[in-house]
Design goal:
Layout: H1 4-17, H2 27-34, E1 52-53, E2 57-58, E3 67-69, E4 74-79, E5 87-92, E6 97-100, E7 119-122, E8 127-133, E9 137-144, E10 156-162, E11 170-174, E12 179-183, E13 189-194, E14 199-205, E15 219-223, E16 228-232, E17 245-248, E18 254-256, E19 274-278, E20 285-289, E21 294-298, E22 303-306
Antiparallel strand pairs: 1-2, 3-4, 4-5, 5-6, 7-8, 8-9, 9-10, 11-12, 12-13, 13-14, 15-16, 16-17, 17-18, 19-20, 20-21, 21-22
Length: about 325
Amino acid sequence: MIFLSIIVLFSSLLVGLLSPIHSHATELSTAADDVAPGTWAQLSSPPASFFRQNSSISTLDAMGEGTWDPVTRRVYFMAAARFGSSKLHVYDDGTNSWKEGGRIPGFPHATWSHGYNHNALDAGTGTLGYIRLTPSMTRFYNLTIRQTISTTNTWQLVSLTSNTGNVAESLDYFPERGTWVIADGTSGNIREYDPDTDNWSLITKKVSCFGTTGVYHTFATYLPLRGELAFGGGNTSSGTPPRRWCTMDQTGTVVQRPDAPSALHVNAGQQTGAIITADPDSGDLLVLTNMGKFHAFDFLTNRWRTVNDVGRPNIEPSAKVL
């Protein structure tokens, strides 16, 4: 698929693409150095079989944001096809190749085994976090990623706690708080796990950040230049997806932001999905919709704008079938 690499990695590689001068040239760094502002670069497509599961279904179905580790220069994310067993996908910048990491032992098959926005990285310690949700339970797993990657890598079940009924929430790591934060659109709860105290707690409840209750496929994206977390969005089983979202600073103060020009939820077969990330240069929140629209939110002006890019990829649902 022509744009597969750049589409899948848009969220997780943007920081790597704009990082300081590389110690040695790689296909990714060369593409980043050569690409003109406002244009797209194409990487070599990975083998289609790597993303196949259950004969014909892609593991990228209902996959949101991956993670980029600047130390190993790799992308990491857990993902699975419907009814599939989640596996760790790893892209290595140095070799421009993909490989599989360790699966979670005893990880059950389920309709909600997709990747969603359930992956996050603590870059300070090199710890990959992943949440596995059922309607009543939250399982939080960790994996040390700065090691040789193989299918024998061992995941640790760090914490087991209750859930409020949503199986497609969103996770990110908040460095200033030193915690893993979950944005839950079902109830509007923003909760966090503190690894130092091994404790879950409720930061705040903000239904307005999701537009309504009963929302799933939400997003949560850390904004490094602002030291804040952007979260919200999602969709319901019917009706127009809400375009509401908020930011939260390290004190837990939440600010409602202007509604987005497009829906803010995982691309899971709907016509309104999007990939959402932070621009490491300007600090803007970037939204690439599955129909090729590109938007940016400027925090200085508190306004959305359309990005006039060239040759943008189309990430409509059918484009993810490998």
